[in-house]
Amino acid sequence: MAERSNIPLAEEKAAEATERIYHEWDAALGAKDLDSAMALYAPDCVLESPLVRHLLGAELGIVEGREKLREFVRIVFERQPAARQRYRKRLFHGRA
Fold first, then answer.
1. Looking at the chain, which runs of residues are DSSP E strands?
2. Domains of the chain: which residue ranges?
């Protein structure tokens, strides 16, 4: 029988979901697939990033709502360099 970790099942499932979203976001970014990226966000999402101020010229570095986020992510995808560098293969260390 395989040995269970000490991580409670709910935390393990949350970590798996987070890892999945990380990889789906990376795939959407690589393909510059705006629809796939937006599918990862709730309609009432909030994103805070210094890039919001820089790319949108916004006073605050906050985007509220998926439709406003779409415009921000579209600009991010447009300005992404042709050659991407990856610094990790997974979000959580010690996980396959």
1. 46-48, 62-64
2. 34-80
